[in-house]
Structures are given as structure tokens and as C-alpha cells.
Amino acid sequence: WDHYxxxxxxxxxxxxxxxxxxxxxxxxxxxxxxxxxxxxxxTTISGDLSNWTSIVGxxxxxxxxxxxxxxxxxxxSLFTNWIRPKGDVDSYQVLVIHENVVIKNETVPSDTxxxxxxxxxxxxxxxxxxTTISGxxxxxxxxxxxxxxPSSVSGVTVNNSGRSDYLSVSWLPAAGDVDSYMVKLSxxxxxxxxxxxxxxxxxxxxxxxxxxxxxxxxxxTKSGKYENQSFGxxxxxxx
Length: 239
Description:
By secondary structure, the protein is mainly beta. It has 3 domains: 3-59, Immunoglobulin-like (Sandwich); 65-147, Immunoglobulins (Immunoglobulin-like, Sandwich); 154-236, Sandwich (Immunoglobulin-like), CATH 2.60.40. It is 0% helix and 59% strand. The protein contains no helices and 19 strands. It has strands at residues 3-10, 13-21, 37-46, 49-58, 65-70, 78-83, 91-98, 101-109, 114-117, 125-134, 137-138, 142-147, 154-159, 167-172, 180-187, 190-198, 203-206, 214-223, 226-235. The strands form 5 sheets. Strands 7, 8, 10, 11 and 12 form a 5-stranded antiparallel β-sheet that branches. It has a 4-stranded antiparallel β-sheet with strand order 2-1-3-4, with no helix packed on it. GO terms for molecular function: cadherin binding.
């Protein structure tokens, strides 16, 4: 034979068409579109005669860009969005992982660049993993973290126990994941005491207070950088 002709096409469009010396054994196609199906043809030329063979290949799809995860102020939802990658996309696989367990596994069509996850745990830290799929081939994974807002405590009880300088505070633990509680005692808009309470505890007390004074209690649930609040109020006993 005299030489080879290699060509590369996508659908009916020929992208590359090049003659190679008969000693050639390989050729690399570059600058192709991610996630695209191509047909490569190799034609053997000998005088006026030729014979050819073809093979189909698929480039790896590109990963999504600017993956963002936000709770939008909710205790049980996360909203994720991304920028569509270059090239061809059939669909996206979107995973939600909590404490190393996959709890959501969704397939999202290629014309969508966002997803809303519901029924999540308040205060939970989640990883969202998005993978581009094209021709059954997966891109590199893109990962972003997001946390739901923690829930507020319920059943707040403030009691002076008949004492003039003392208030006890108790509550029912917040549902979901909690890092700690902060209990603030204030009067007339001014903070009197602040206590940080372990998540395993649901009560605290304040001493050396002023008799007959009305105090406001704020219980803040903390999880990561997010928080939620509940309130109570009580007056110390008179001397």
C-alpha cells in the first residue's frame, strides 16, 4: 500500500481528514468536544484501490462548574445549582451524602441545572455530588457541602422556684443535628448572662438575679454557622 487516510466525523460532519505515511501506526485526535460520540475511519490506499475500517469512540464528558448548595433558610431542604459544562450531556447524576451514607440518588435531565432536596435532617451537614453522564461515560465528580438550618427547641419552661434571685430554664431537645445551645438571659434589651450548653443537656439555671425583675430568655440552637431560636420569659420572686 502507498499510505493511509484517517478521518474523524461526528454525525454527518467530517472534522479531521489527513493522509499518513504507510509507516504510521497511530494517530491522536485533539481539541474534540467533551462527551461527544465520534466515528474514526482509517483508509488504506494502494494505487487506485482502497479499503477502510471504522470504529466508534466517545470522549469523556466535562464536569459541571460552579456547583452551589444553599438551604435558603430552611431546616429540611437544600437547593443546588451548577453551570452546564461544555460539550454533550445526556444527564446528570446527583447524590446527597450524610455521614458517609448516600441518602439521595437522582438522575437529572440535561436541560436542568438545579435540584431541590427535601425531607432532610435539620442542622445536618450534607455533601452534594454531581456527575455529568454522556454515552454511558461519567465525568469527574464535583462535590460541594451544604448544611440545613437547625431546628429550634420546644417546650421552653422558665421557673423561679419561689426564689427571688434565681431562674431555672429547661427545654425539649431540638430535632436533628445540634452542635450546642446558647442560653441568653436579658432584661430591658441588655444581656445579663450567656451560657453555652452541651447538646446533651436541656436545662440550666441563673443565680444572683435581681428580685421581682422580668427576664427574657433566648435559647439558640447552633449547627455549623447556622442557628435557630426559641424564647421564654419569667419574673424572679419578690423578697
